[in-house]
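INFO  loader      accepted 1 record
INFO  loader      residues=224
INFO  predictor   begin
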Amino acid sequence: MIKDLSDIIRKHQKTLPNIEEMDVADKFKEVYKETEDGNLTIENEMHMCTGLRKVHMEIANLGALDIIHCIWYPDPDFDLPIFGADIVSNRNIVTAAITDISPVDEEHPIYEEIEDISRMHSFKHNRDIPAWGDIFSPYCKFARLETDEDKSTFCKVVDQYLDAYVGAVWKATIDYNRAEHRNESQVHYCDQQKKNDKTRKILTNYFGAKWADNYINQVLFDEP
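INFO  predictor   done
INFO  writer      dumping tokens
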């Protein structure tokens, strides 16, 4: 499923306006560490385009554990929400799969389309949004995926959300009037994401607290 989802993300990424690759610090681009739990690998891809300050995808593996983490951060000068998708897979079970188009300003026209997409798809084992998840929209999908049908459905949701999102990026124009508000909202989004202790604990366990803090603040959830 990691390959299926990354292929979907890359397919849409290629269609973004004026997409170009961003430099990633060597210490974060490809990370490898031998551990008692198996070999830990982390790969980061970053791009930028007109309207988006960072298009990021992280793929990680540790033994039987596979992770994909993706966030598309808008340039606050553009009236665009944030796209995100993550899955955590342990062997054949996806213990956590989440995707959303998260608001950073007043309701965006994209939500009319997203509401329809969300209504069409459901999962057998929905999960509760975490306490820090006030950053997500009402159309956030968060579930445990045990069947091939659920896995296929999740990929369809991401595919359709991204189709709508890329369309919004192409339509977006510079709007300075509420840029400061969108900037503050994006900072709040990053701050709330950093409250996910599981990510910090895993990184700290293998790399130490300083490396983990730098990775979280500079790679995963860097503020605009």
